[in-house]
Amino acid sequence: MKAIAxxxxxxxxxxxxxxLLAVALGREAARCSKPAKFERFYWSISxxxxxxxxxxxxxxxxxxxxxxxxxxxxxxxxxxxNGAGQPVEELWSHRLQALLGPRYAVINLSFRGALPTxxxxxxxxxxxxxxxxxxxxANTAPDTCGLPVGSIYxxxxxxxxxxxxxxxxxxxxxxxxxxxxxxxxxxxxxxxxIKRAARxxxxxxxxxxxxxxxxxxxxxxxxxxxxxxPWAPRNKVPDREPPLPPVARRFSHNNAGEMRLxxxxxxxxxxxxxxxxxxxxxxxWDALDTTIEATIVPxxxxxxxxxxxxxxxxxxxxxxxxxxxxxxxxxRVAEAVWTRYGIRALVAGFGYTGEDYVDRRHLAPSxxxxxxxxxxxxxxxxxPSPPP
Amino acid sequence: xxxxxxxxxLFSGVFFPVHWLLRxxxxxxxxxxxxxxxxxxxxxxxxxxxxxxxxxxxTYFAALSRHRGLITAAVVLNVAxxxxxxxxLFFSAQVLGAIHPxxxxxxxxxxAALLPAAPPLAISxxxxxxxxxxxxxxxxxxxxxxxxxxxxxxxxxxxxxAGPIKRYQDFTAQLPLGLAGVGTADVTAGALRVTLxxxxxxxxxDNLTQMINFYxxxxxxxxxxxxxxxxxxxxxxxxxxxxxxxxxxxxxxFSRMMGVRLPExxxxxxxxxxxxxxxxxxxISLSTWIRDYIYIPLGGNRLGxxxxxxxxxxxxxxxxxxxxxxxxxxxxxxxHGVGLAVNSSYVTALGPVGRALGWFFAxxxxxxxxxxxxFVAFGWxxxxxxxxxxxxxxxxxxxxxxx
Lengths: 388, 403
Fold this sequence. Notes:
The structure holds 2 protein chains of 2 kinds. The longest helix of chain A is centred in the N-terminal third of the chain and has 27 residues, at 6-32. Chain A has helices at 6-32, 55-65, 79-82, 92-100, 120-129, 154-162, 170-182, 185-204, 206-216, 247-250, 255-267, 282-295, 313-316, 321-340, 365-379, and strands at residues 71-75, 104-108, 134-139, 270-272, 278-280, 304-309, 344-348.
């Protein structure tokens, strides 16, 4: 280096101190900052509005709910268990907590569009490894399990892995490595970037710091979901659901489109043979088998409850007898597949009315209450793992 | 965008400290070359590196031979590589297809089968720098003799992906200064420039991109008021400047952190008071390249008004095409070509009216500034909206009924 001027010294010292200060603040944020009065990951504290809760935050939220002597009930899965359509005051997981009583601590860590192996499943796996007695609940479509990487929530897996939180499970490592190798170079590089980010955040805590600033002070990234208050700190954006229209007007719009989806949900899973029996499509069901085996660690399986939700009766009533029969068979087959791996599975929605739904899939407060009763009855018969 | 990847952060965390700590220029040169190779290899991949290595070898040896025929052949090879990799599909499907659809479709199918899915990373920059180098050597300048210096000129990582397009005389003069020892003043200035670039790109341009992408959606754009549409077009213009100049700032800054100064690429272009002024401030390294290696060799303004206008149009059509193989870029280039032709000739062509206008714009520069900004803004409609019909619809939404 050439001769160093005093002001350059000052500059480098400023950069170094600023960097170290930011890391220290990030570390502190990772240690104690989390959404206040947390009930669920609603849109403004979710990746859909470019707010990316870290794995560490999710784990901290779960631990904050739990205390020794209690059984932690971790809710994962997608928008149905997230309670999309239910006002936060009438969230189904509140009802579940009330039904289970003080011996259990329910935390809803589901995300809209998440797979049962993403996010909350990783928290359950890590906390189980730490010896916290828990039960894990998630939901999915009958033919879907999915890898914990690859979707918008995939970063949580890399964060948990970078922090060394996950149980060692070679089949999962092999499956993810194979998936990465089979991807297009651009997709592979994108995943490796997410992995690098997770590793760097584990050391430097920049995402934790940014989340803390975005939640408490100012949000720095404009996005269409939060376009009316793009810069507002996310703790100022309330968890509000749009008011529910009366049942008569709730389902009528876009009926054709919704019916297409209702039919497609099990269409490729089974085919009717000449004798009137439903034959499983081996491609779909073999893939489900392989993915469950490769992604859900064996220790977590006995304390896992997998939910499948059927569509609203408004749409089911428009299905033909064959379609209804195919639907019901597909759900029963899915139950059997998951049960084969020691995972308790059940179908929710039979006997629900139109009043119980906000749309084709999502449950209204009354439907949520019914779901909570169904799940509570199951949980009370399940053994948490590890035992308390 | 490569400079804001985690890979690059990790790369920088290793590369720069070692570069600064190395004592001998030869070691520093070797380290820099290794860094450039790793950077290029990572982002371009083997399929993207090989064509550039071949082009580089041909360029280096042709220039070294100083044989005019070989140099010309190397220029043709570079132009053919650029045309083949980046524009062959466009020419076969769009140009040939417009003349003879059947032939165009067959040629496009053949081309698609022969070419890789994407052209080698930054092939335009490589081709432009190599052509510049070859032409300068053909004109009598000294070629680069040391292979590692040529390799550094070719794959110098700060300017590899989005320029600025370097001139080899400047680069070879700057490189030894940087290799001799990096001053902290350079590192400080470079780091500040990188910070400025990152702020332009990440804080401003990326936020504008999010907004523009949302408001451009047909189901949203259709409900925008005229005022909001004007704001959208202003955002488009701001976004491209902040994005591109932010990237240039980072390239210049990273290079400065190694003691090597790269040419400036932007000089407050939206303060230009005429279109000529704009092109002396916007993407300077490209516009001067086009001027030196296309416009002037075509005759420039030496062969009468007609040739001057034709040369300008051709140069700007190629300038547009440089941005991508699509008609909207060609039209954007032609739009500026026509604008420059008018800008440079109206004073004489319109007689007393022209002189009065010239006097007016000289006395009231804010009028020239507003007119230039408006002209450039409409150019961005052509640049960003494909097909052209969409650009015209956007212009209509601004209150300009083109029908």
